[in-house]
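Researcher: Good morning. I'm working through a list of sequences from a screen, and I'd like to move beyond sequence-only analysis. For each chain I'm collecting a predicted structure so we can compare shapes side by side. This is the next one on the list. No need for commentary yet; just the structure.
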Amino acid sequence: MAPLLEKTDMSSNRPDNDSSRDILWQTIRDEAKKTVASEPMLSGFLHRSVLDHSSLGAALANLLATKLANINLPQALLADLFVSSFSDPIIAGQLDNDILAIYSRDSACRQYQAAMLYNKGFHALSAWRTAHQLWQSNRPSLALMLQNRISVVLGVDIHPAARIGQGVMFDHATGIVIGETAVVEDCVSIMQSVTLGGTGKESGDRHPKVRHGVLIGPGAKILGNIEIGRGSKVTAASVVLKDIPPHSLVAGVPATVIGQVETESPAEQMDQGLNSCREDQ
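Model: Good morning. Structure tokens for this chain:
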């Protein structure tokens, strides 16, 4: 299946228009109906998670509330929080583009409903968007409690003050840590066990800035207030401690530039090897 929506300009925070959003949601519903017909045992789950809802935001709110609820954050309270958050047109557009990013980049994702229903990285990032909105609305205690639940249940720890764009994919996602002053721009792909952290107990602006189109491989650690330039690729298990120029290939402990990336957006290519690169001269 070809990508459902036309590729958007990920440097903009403008959401897709309502008709495009309706097309995505209708496609997810159609996929769910086909799955019910072919796998009746999932009928109850798919009705509760997709078919009983009028929009992606409402369905996702219910799904996340069910996953994250506990005695201190009851399901009804969480559902109300998520519904309110996902009704914001900016966040609704971000959710759409995150699903499209997963579908277009993850070779194991063959349906839009799979990205919405089963992708833990999408769930963690979507719930974080609500925590970030709470933080921005001067509700830090509730934001931090929600962050804690996301971390405990989904294994992804993102401070609610961090800034993350749209069209972002957390592949596998387990063990991702993103600190308070980190920035992740649009159209970035981050693999499991990646840390965007500080270097100690210093305060202030102390976390990495990851620019548009960057691909960060499994287990990479990027530490300090440094910049990973646009369109760069950080290979698996690298430890990055200094600024990386745009369109660079970096590897090692500590990481060094070993080549130049010839594709504009490694995040979309998802090639974690040394292909599409030329050796640094």
